Amino acid sequence: MTFRKYLVLAGVTVFAAAGDSMLSHGMKQAGNISLNHLQGILLALLNPWVAAGILLLLAFFASYMNALSWADLTYVLPATSLGYVLLALVAKFVLHEQVSPLRWLGIALISGGVGFVAGGPALTSHEHSKSPVLAKEARNVAPAVDGAPAEDVPAVGGGARR
Amino acid sequence: MKHAYTWGGILVVVFASVVGDVLLARAMKQVGDVHDLWRRVGLWAVVSRTLGNANFFLGVTAMAVAFFSLLFALSWGDVSLVAPAAASLTFIGNAFAAKIFLHEKVDQRRWLAAVLVAAGVALLAG
After folding, report:
1. How many other β-carbons are positioned within 10 Å of the β-carbon of residue A144?
2. How far apart are CA B109 and CA B99, in angstroms?
């Protein structure tokens, strides 16, 4: 795990939380959308909060795909749930809203879950766990690991050629 | 009867999101580590390789199905039931699906995390 990868995971968390709240703020301003008035959707897109929310959710999707390219689904998903914790903390410390004890319990549970996963490896799926580069290194190293076969292998190969 | 519709809707949402997440995760594993690829072949190649992946396309479709069924479920039931139930059941479903279909090693640590996160989300998402 490099610093850059932690930044991507932070992006997954922050973009999702910020995008969702901007979208919901904007949609409350834009008003109800019904199937009879589909042009309402187009009008809603003109709302700056809705537009910004959609851009942030696109950024979330890009970081989510980025993270899934090098980490397990079960490693990345808890990071997405940290967004709920972030929203509750923003409600408490920025918007000065009341956060109920049950919600604090929810924050503690999610944080605990994320902590459990973050302490383990990021990638475990065996069919993909070796990048081509690592696989090549492993092949180069393998004969040297146990000395005796390493000496035998070239001899057998050489014998066959002769 | 309304109850049955609501829970039916929630199950459709959960099923579609789990299918979508698994397909997207598989697609990105097929594309390969984006950081390495970006350095070797450039951003544009990474983007076109991702958008051209069949699993990516199917995954996005499944996510769209999940989104629209969530809208339907929300019109049948209360937000305070539908949103947390769908979100937390998706975490549990994903842990099973990742183990079965993506062959991830979902050990005790990750099961515990899935349950804790699902419980936490159920409390916060309402």
Report:
1. 9
2. 13
Interface pTM (ipTM) of the complex? Answer: 0.89
pLDDT tens sequence across A51-100: 999 999 999 999 999 999 999 999 999 888 898 888 888 888 888 888 89
Distance from CA of A121 to the nearest CA of B (A): 10
Residue from the list B34, B50, B103 with its beta carbon closest to the beta carbon of A127: B103
Domain ranges (residues) in chain A: 3-124, 130-162
CA-CA distance, A46 to A26, in Å (whole number)?
Answer: 10
CB contact under 8 A, B106 and A114: no
Compare CB distances from A84 to B32, B113, B124 and report the shortest one's residue. B124
A2: three-class secondary structure by DSSP? coil
8 Å CB contact of A119 and B94: no
Residue A131 has a CB neighbour count (10 Å cut-off) of 14
Q: Would you call A70 and B120 a contact, using CB atoms and an 8 Å cutoff?
A: no
**Strands (DSSP E) along A38-133, which ranges?**
none
Model pTM?
Answer: 0.80
| CB nearest A69 (choices: B22, B31, B103) | B31
Tell me how many domains chain B contains: 1
What is the C-alpha separation between B51 and B31, in angstroms, rounded? 10
Among A92-106, A113-127, B108-122, the minimum mean pLDDT is found in: A113-127
The pLDDT value given to residue A34: 67
Structural domain boundaries enclosing B21 = 2-124
CA distance A87 to chain B (A): 9
Is the Cβ of A4 closer than 8 Å to some Cβ of chain B?
Answer: yes
Residue A50 in 3-state DSSP? helix
Q: How many CB atoms lie within 10 A of CB B43?
A: 10
